[in-house]
Design a protein that fits this description.
The complex is a heterodimer of chains A (about 350) and B (about 300). Chain A contains 11 helices and 12 strands. With about 350 residues, chain A is α/β, with parallel strands linked by helices. In chain A, the strands form 2 sheets. Chain A has an 8-stranded mixed β-sheet, with helices on both faces. A 4-stranded antiparallel β-sheet of chain A has the order 2-1-4-5, with helices on one face. Chain A is globular. Chain B starts with a helix and ends in a 10-residue tail after the last helix. Chain B is built from 11 helices and no strands. Chain B has helices spanning about 1-15, 15-35, 35-55, 90-125, 125-140, 145-155, 160-185, 190-195, 200-240, 250-255, 265-290. The chains are: A alpha/beta (about 350), B mainly alpha (about 300). The interface of A and B includes residues 110, 129, 131 and 138 of A.
Chain lengths: ~350, ~300
């Protein structure tokens, strides 16, 4: 991915500001997302990277307003093409889901209804959002979608049940479902995690191709930095419900600034490099139930200072398009002070 | 709303759906034919239903016609003998089957309707809705179905309609309980989340995704339920709270043959045997369907 410089004039598809999601449990309040800001522009692929439980999927569910109870969006705004999603009625929101914002799930084996054929499930989404009820038109459209996702023998596949297809084929069907109404934004929640490594690349290439063809933006959630390097234009690194660093892919891999990002990249083996032992980030993720006044990463950070313990870092731009939330980079200082 | 409804009816009518349903039906019937219990159960039910339906046109005596042959044993003219009033027991058994099967089937259909709607709503929505409905289900579940049916039949007065109502009221809780449990587990599955993320509303998810995934155990329960309902109907009639004479019914025949059990055992024995076989047939079918409808057997084509 060659980063496109001077990205000021691009049109924002999705603009999230200060999003906070909290779960009110009997044991206490868990802050799953703690003030997320990021933007997805037209025709771009943004990767959301982070470890398990850092709030990647919760960000996706918040965008669709499907945060599972007892979770609630308690603050912030989500603007989709300039419209505030959090202010829409449930009916309006349903019209957006699947039509303008679609989502692909991690496990294709369970995200299709086992009792209906592939054709009837695709047909359901198409008639629901596009009002096509004519059988001939509908089946033509279904066939066209199955062809688009390169399913072998689509005519036969239409009549098959999910359990008769392989994992990769099921994920292709899910992609067809998600793209059937040419959404402006496609959210892919770890679309390749449950698949074979050989299939992963195929699916990623397919996603990349299709989002380019349909002109939709994509939000790719993953914990695999290799996937990000291959597919994404920009990357957001999440940690404990916050976005710690955001940059164009090339920039991020070349000049990571947040200690967590550096740690992640060090923990990632590189081709042709012989390592006896992979670097690890010491410690574990903090308990999100205990509110912390400072930086969430403080206990695992080698360069933490007293300030990191007491004050939450703000998001600053270290170079154009490269944002970081870390006290090592004080506001107004464009250059990292100890690198 | 109208769009959704149009979509639903269209969906049910679409050839692809029919194609899928036809395929499923073919699958199930091929597997069913290889299951001994289903074959035996289905044959019994088919024979008895056919005899019951065709009884007005069969060359047998009318069930209410009195003949001069009182309390006669089985013979070539009266296969099952005659009762104390000279009525043909064979004919009365067949005509009784009409009553028993109709009452049982209708009662189960109504129980199924109430049970599915209540259970699906409770299981799918959860929370306060579930609390209220599950409480109601438990309240009905506390009483044995037969006692409840007896109480309602006695309170409503005995007529065919009231027997159906009484059985439905006492039996729906079982279906609701089953449906609720199924819905609770199905709603957690990823494809429900996925269809929500693709813009489906609750009603659509409930009826086009959750319900079809729970249909197998419901069919099994319904089959066993018909057997139960036949027993309850006969018991009610036996106790005099069900079908009233002169309408022939198995329960009442058992009851009326009781005083003459030693001299003329055929009067109660034959209805009893037919009742037993019918109940057995529905139970066998239910048990066999449990195996046939198991989704894990779907891929196995032995």
């Amino acid at each position: 991915m060659i980063p496109s410089k001077g990205a000021v004039s691009r049109k924002a598809i999705l603009d999230i500001q200060g999003l906070r999601v909290q779960f009110f449990l009997s044991e206490g309040t868990v802050t799953a997302l703690d003030g997320i800001d990021f933007t997805i522009y037209e025709k771009e692929t943004v990767g959301i990277v982070g470890e398990t439980g850092c709030g990647k999927s919760m960000t996706a569910f918040s965008i669709l307003r499907l945060v599972p109870s007892p979770g609630k969006i308690t603050a912030g705004s989500i603007k989709f093409k300039g419209h505030e999603l959090l202010k829409l009625t449930n009916d309006q929101m349903r019209g957006i889901r699947g039509k303008m914002i679609s989502m692909i799930f991690q496990d294709p084996a369970t995200s299709l209804d086992p009792v209906f054929t592939i054709g009837s499930q695709l047909g359901e989404v198409i008639s629901l959002h596009q009002g096509i009820y004519d059988h001939a038109k509908l089946s033509a459209k279904v066939l066209q979608m199955l062809n688009l996702v390169k399913i072998a023998d689509p005519k036969n596949a239409m009549k098959q049940y999910p359990h008769e297809l392989s994992g990769g084929m099921k994920q292709r069907v899910m992609i067809a479902l998600a793209l059937s109404c040419s959404p402006a934004l496609l959210i892919a929640d770890e679309p390749t995690t449950a698949l074979d490594v050989t299939i992963q690349a195929q699916i990623l290439n397919l996603l990349k191709d299709l989002s380019r063809k349909t002109g939709s933006s994509m939000m790719l959630i993953t914990h695999n930095l290799g996937v990000v390097a291959e597919t994404c234009d920009r990357v957001c690194i999440m940690y404990a419900g916050r976005i710690v660093e955001e940059a164009e892919t090339f920039e991020l891999f070349a000049r990571p600034v947040h200690p967590y990002t550096t740690g992640l990249l060090n923990a990632f083996p590189k081709l042709g490099e012989k390592k006896e032992e992979l670097a690890v980030i010491r410690g574990t993720v903090p308990n999100l139930m205990i509110p912390f006044p400072g930086c969430a990463f403080v206990e695992r950070c080698d360069r933490a200072t007293d300030l990191c313990m007491s004050k939450k870092p703000t998001r600053i731009e270290v170079s154009p398009g490269h944002f970081v939330s870390c006290h090592l980079y004080p506001e107004g200082d464009e250059k990292p002070n100890d690198r | 709303m109208t769009r959704i409804r149009a979509g639903l009816s269209d969906r049910l009518l679409s050839w692809r759906m029919l194609g899928g349903a036809r395929q499923t039906f073919v699958d199930i019937s091929t597997r069913g034919r290889k299951n001994g219990m289903v074959v035996i159960g289905f044959t019994i039910i088919l024979v008895i239903t056919l005899l019951a339906v065709l009884s007005p046109w069969l060359p047998i005596a009318k069930p209410t016609v009195l003949s001069p042959d009182l309390t006669q044993g089985p013979s070539s003219s009266h296969w099952f003998g005659t009762d104390q009033l000279g009525r043909d027991v064979f004919s009365r058994v067949l005509w009784g089957a009409r009553v028993s099967l109709t009452v049982a089937t209708l009662a189960i259909v109504f129980s199924l309707l109430i049970g599915v709607i209540m259970g699906l709503t409770a299981g799918y929505y959860g929370g306060a809705v579930d609390y209220v409905i599950a409480g109601t289900i438990d309240l009905f579940w506390t009483f044995p179905a037969f006692l409840l049916a007896l109480a309602f039949a006695a309170a409503l007065g005995s007529s065919l309609t009231n027997v159906i109502i009484a059985i439905s009221i006492s039996y729906w809780a079982g279906f609701a309980r089953l449906m609720r449990g199924q819905a609770l587990s199905v709603r957690e599955r990823l494809f429900v989340e996925a269809s929500r993320a693709l813009g489906a509303n609750n009603k659509r998810i409930m009826f086009t995704h959750v319900l079809p995934n729970c249909i197998a155990p419901l069919i099994v329960w319904a089959s066993v339920g018909v057997a139960d309902a036949i027993t309850i109907e006969s018991s009610l009639s036996f106790l005099g709270a069900g079908t009233q004479p002169p309408t022939p019914s198995w329960g009442y025949m058992l009851h009326s043959g009781l005083p003459a059990l030693q001299e003329a055992p055929w009067i109660s024995t034959f209805p009893g045997i037919v009742l037993l076989i019918t109940v057995l047939g529905f139970n066998l079918l239910g048990d066999g369907l449990r195996d046939v409808l198991d989704p894990r057997m779907k891929g196995l084509r032995r």
